[in-house]
Amino acid sequence: MTLYLIGIGIYAEPSLTREVEEILRNVDRIYLEGYTSPIYPRLLDSLRISREIVRLTRSEIEEGMDKLINEAIKGDIAILVPGDPLIATTHITLVVEARRRGVDTKIFHSSSALCAAIGESGLHTYKFGASATIMRREVASSKRAYDVLKENLERGLHTLFFLEYDAETNYIMSPREAIEILLSYDDEKRISLEDLVIVLCGLGSRDECKYAATIGEVLKEEDTYGKPCILIIPGKLHFTEEEYIETVLRR
């Protein structure tokens, strides 16, 4: 029996291979992980799967992992995942536990917001340091996110931040709120209002938003994006990176 993790990409209508389509026709059950990224009706319709698709919440994967693996022991199940299946650490844990219990696993990769954001930024891939997630103050501390930024800046590296998205409450952190949170930890004044930040929201969607602005400019914006965002604070820039930012992203 097999557990399939199938990436369906970011926002744009997924293009499933014939192999994946055949798998989805024959598995015993199809799940859709719906907490790492919003799932829009247009995306579900474009899958053209004439079978029941069961939505999974975060707790149903994290706390219900045994249930999923037990199902895979008895039959084939497929889990559709926005973006790439193995970007989320929970999915990696699921694969490890399934293999430990003798369940075959097969992964079908797809584009992820992480890869898309790095590409759209125009920054050199090998110059990115560690990434981090910025969370609401009442949910969790983002001190680690600030510490990651501090260390990366000291090394001249770029920093990518995922901004909190909560599927259950439909909360989407705005770039302005994320920067305000970072600044609340910046007692050493390492962040200047004149520093550039790259904002990437809803990549792959029809109304994606991507631009570069100063931190001061972002702090004056309204919170109107409505789609999960990624922020990138550049480190030391190569002249080709500067050209891309000024020509393509700067507004």
Provide an overview of this structure.
With 251 residues, the chain is of the alpha/beta class. It has helices at 18-26, 41-47, 58-62, 65-74, 89-100, 113-121, 143-154, 175-184, 215-219, 239-249; strands at residues 2-7, 29-33, 53-56, 77-81, 104-108, 132-134, 159-163, 165-166, 171-172, 196-201, 209-214, 229-233. It folds into two domains: 2-108, Tetrapyrrole methylase, N-terminal domain (Cobalt-precorrin-4 Transmethylase, domain 1), CATH 3.40.1010.10; 113-249, Tetrapyrrole methylase, C-terminal domain (Methyltransferase, Cobalt-precorrin-4 Transmethylase, Domain 2, 2-Layer Sandwich). The protein is 36% helix and 22% strand. The strands form three sheets. A five-stranded parallel beta sheet has the order 3-2-4-1-5, sandwiched between helices. Strands 6-7-12-10-11 form a five-stranded mixed beta sheet. Helix 2 links the parallel strand 2 (29-33) and strand 3. The chain starts with a strand and ends with a helix.
Would you kindly provide a brief summary of this structure?
The chain contains ten helices and twelve strands.
* Average predicted confidence as pLDDT: 90
Count of the domains: 2
Give the C-alpha Rg: 20 Å
- CATH homologous superfamily classification of the largest domain: Tetrapyrrole methylase, C-terminal domain
- Percent in strands: 15-25%
CATH first level of the largest domain: Alpha Beta
Record field, number of beta strands: 12
Strands of the widest sheet, in order across it, are 3-2-4-1-5
* CATH fold-level assignment of the largest domain: Methyltransferase, Cobalt-precorrin-4 Transmethylase, Domain 2
The proportion of residues forming helix, as a percent range, comes to 25-40%
Poorly predicted tracts of residues: none
Distance between the termini: 53 Å
How many helical elements?
10
